[in-house]
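sorry for the late reply, my laptop died twice this morning and i had to redo everyting from scratch. anyway the thing you sent over, i finally got around to it. pasting the sequence first so we're on the same page, its 345 residues, then the predicted structure underneath. double check i copied it right bc i was rushing
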Amino acid sequence: MSRPFSLAEIQQVIGGEIVGNRDLLIFGVAGLEEAGAQELSFLANPRYASHLAKTAAGAVIIPPDASLPPSGNAIKHENPSLAFQKLIEAYKKTLPPMSHFKGIHPLAFVAEGVALGLNVTISPFAVIEKGAKIGDGTFVGSHTYVGPQATVGKECWIHPHVTLREGVIVGDRVILQPGAVIGSCGFGYLTDGEGKHKKLDQLGNVTLGDDVEIGANTTIDRARFATTDIGAGTKVDNLVQIAHNVWIGKHCILVSGTAVAGSSKLEDHVILMGRVAVNGHLTIVSQTRVAACGVVQKTIRESGDYGGFPLVPIKTFHRNYVVAKELGKRIQDLEKEVYGKKSKE
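ok and here's the structure:
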């Protein structure tokens, strides 16, 4: 923090009820296991209650019914995780800016005919091609490429080494983490009689809705004819692959390592956990969640929680695991009994 804050000052920001020393000075924030006597932590998940009992943190944000930390200092709050987030947001406002560059840097390469809004920042060695449009208040990091006729909305933050290829459309307040590639060619080929592969041209584009975030080194392919569409508010983690002509609804979450094959459709509020694979040309209905490493091979028409390969409702997946484990134990016991008798004969 730029300066220490008393527990009372922090409570004014996040709300809740103080227990202990209101004048305790907090110099930083950390996890329960890492925090020291001058740092603040929080407990949001009951499974970490054992860490709370041993933490060295000077104070902890805790649920109203939780035990106090060893220090005896706490802020009781109905939603500790949200309270901690509010504190982090307030703390970030005291930090130096993420970039000290302002305006169009002399070492940026901006073609003629580019439409730039107000208060746009183009960092050194960024390339903005002819016909591109950048909205008000948008930041473009170093070594980023914005292709011809690409459109970027207002108040976006495009980190270094991002590629936005030709015709890509980006909404307002979008965050693109380093290395994201938006609008690369879809993976499509025609194979002739000799087994040679001829590349299919991808003439479409990619559209990212407002408030989308795309993680580092994630790739989103352009459509063959129309658009690969990512709905407003959707959050995509690092190292995700979204293929051509995919349509993703609003406020979805795709966690790291997930791959969605071409022409599939995810309706609103779908959550795909880490390393989920989705086959092409199918639909996942809204309010569906797929557990890590699940493989979606068929259209999901009923919302709910799923997991496994082949994919089944999550309760069935858990039950199958327990049954398989029990059967395995029974087989081992039978083998010991049978082979044990044989060996004595």
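The mean pLDDT is 94.
thats about all i looked at so far, will dig more tmrw
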